[in-house]
Fold this sequence. Notes:
Helix content is 36%, strand content 22%. By secondary structure, it is α/β, with parallel strands linked by helices.
Amino acid sequence: MSAQIQERVTLPTFVDPVLITAFTTPNKGGATASWAMGNLMSECNAQLVAELDAAECYNYGRMRPKFERRDNGAEIEWPTNLIYAATPEGSDHTFLFLVGVEPTNNWQSFAEAVAAFARRAGVRTAVSLRSTPGWVSHRETAPVFAIYSNEEQRARFGTPILPMHEGAADIGMAINIALRAAGCDGVDLFVVEPFYTPGMPCASAAVVMLDTLRHAFRVSYDGHALEDVARAQDQTFDQLLSSSPELRESVEAIESRAGRRLSDVGFPLSTPQHVALDRSEPPVDQVVNEVENFLRAQRS
Length: 300
């Protein structure tokens, strides 16, 4: 069965709409992109306009739904894929935000359903937001890279091009390929965040991602609240560095690489053939476990 779009309200007439997508992946990192988009949606007072009913796109044996205790009972939280709309003051575009959970099954049907919605809504430009861990420091500006469908979008965003490597695709790429087949310009936007921010949104990387969107579409965005969160996170990681000689040495080694190339930031971390580790750097699992223990202690 193909995934279907169920419209919560009748779609209004949009102003040169731009579709922006971001997906969370349960039990993995990469939460920064969807968190950044959530901040932007809140700032723009985005309103719900549609939902992608995609129950058949999830294998609950592999990805268990969450439950919450409410009123002495329990409630299952099923994956949702919601589409919100906002037209910021002074903007030449309506932004359609698709925020959801990465499907585990029927990717082709899912991507085609998103493309069908985009055609009905009159979308001509689509941007996919992604975050990935790499060999970067929280004390540096997070690197941003992109894959563009044409030179016009490259000129608009102005971020370095991410070289295409054959291999496994993610849902963002599958959707943007379907959208391009439907006649939409596409931009796959990637931000690289420190590998030692396990499973949590990286506020400083989110700030850079939203600044990139703001520049590309010339929209105003009050990012002071997010910048405050970024400063607080950076202070926490500075404390961690002061108490962990291994992580401090690793971060200092990262920062000492002047004039780094794309391969030097280890993008993405899951493709080790692109990463040359220094002997001074501890194993990733060891560092991540140490960070998680530190953050757990901070919360207690």
